[in-house]
Every structure is written in structure tokens, then in C-alpha cells.
Specification:
It is an enzyme of class 2 (transferase). By secondary structure, this protein is an alpha/beta fold. Helix content is 41%, strand content 15%. It has a single domain (18-145, 186-234), classed as 3-Layer(aba) Sandwich (Undecaprenyl pyrophosphate synthetase). A 6-stranded parallel sheet has the order 3-4-2-1-5-6, sandwiched between helices. Helix 2 packs parallel to helix 3 (77-100).
Amino acid sequence: MLKQPLRQEAVLPAPPVHVAFIMDGNRRWARSRGMPPVYGHRRGAEVVRRTVEACAKAGVRYVTLFAFSSENWRRPAAEVGDLMDLLRLYLKKEIAELCRNGVRLKVIGDRAGLAADIRELIEVAEVQSRDNERITVIMALNYGSRREITDAARRLAMEAQAGRLDPAAIDEAMLASRLYTAGIPDPDLLIRTSGELRISNFLLWQLAYTELVFVPVSWPDFAEEHLHEALREYQKRERRYGASAG
């Protein structure tokens, strides 16, 4: 009697380790409803909470959120003020919830350009959540990638000038270790909402081999189903890092 072959279970591709988000469309979403921009930003903050939790459940270990760029200071003063107040509220109210859910918070960007009380809130949040291991959330605040790379190059130049570094020894790994994201794996997947097809001075170095997915909904409408569609799209792609196929 012939034995029936064992049925093999389908092996699903691993989820991305690190997913980065450009959370675009809050202002347009609000204006389409006759509301001020802060209405969209508030709704967007609620989506952040749900998205981080969905990422953690999916097995993602790192999430980076482009929360406020160095170029966003050009927006109307009232809108910037509303954004900063929303950030204060988030840092004050959400840190306890983050800790309960095993979330570690890290902030990258030029903190010197932020108000002193916001810098203090960031430091407290990072310290209180530093031992959490379920998922790491990196918030990019007052962040611009060209400035980040310039700052890294300047640090290397100063070390070389001081005699602590041989310029001939500088390589990609050394420069990467001077970036704000030192010690964090590069994103495997970038998701941008609102249908815009650009990366807007975000993680230019780190996105060199990242898979890009552009979702044609505004961030306040971004739902768990959109996240899972993006993850499935990522899992279908073959990542060759410059090598030939086959």
C-alpha cells in the first residue's frame, strides 16, 4: 500500500523587520471636510496608535514615523503651534500606554530646534520606555535627511582633523554609524500615503535598498487593511540588493 505524501504547509515570507511611514495627507483630509489642518493631525495621531499596534501584531520590530520635517517650519505659525501642542499632548499622555504595550520610543532629528519642554518630554519618554522590547517606534522630529548626512560628514571631518581618525579609513559603515539612526536596521519597507510618489528628504541614506509602496489614501484614512496590503506586496517582491536574478 502506497503511503500518501505528507502535505507541506505553505511557508509565508517573513514580515519586514523595519517599516517606515511618510504620513501624508492630514491637511488635505481636513480641508476636504471644511475643517482646519489640526483636525487632520489629531485624526492622524489616532491612526499612529492603531498602526503601531498592527505592526507589532504582524511581527514588525521597528517602525519609523516621519512626524515633523525640518521644512515643516515653513507652514503657517498657527498650524506649527497646533502640531507642537499635539506633540506635547502625545508625549504626556501616550508614554504610559506605550510602556504597557511594550513599545520603546526613540526620537531622531535636530532636537535643538525644538522647545525646551518638548525636549524634556522626549528624554523622559525615551528613558521610561528604553527597556521595552516588543517594538521600537522611531519618531523623526525636526528631521531632514540631507542635514543628517551633512552632520555625519562633519563629525567625521572633525575627528579626522583632531587626529582621531584616518580619512582613508572612512567607509560606508563608518558614516552610517554617525547618522541619527546608528544601531537601527535600515527600513525594509517604506509606506507613503496620499498618493504622492516621492520620499521628501526622508532617510535618503537608509532607503537605498528599501521597497517602496505608495498608498492612494490620506493618512487619516489609513487602516489596518491598507497596512496588510502593503505587507503582502512587500512579501511578493524579490530583494536582490543589486545582484542579478536567478
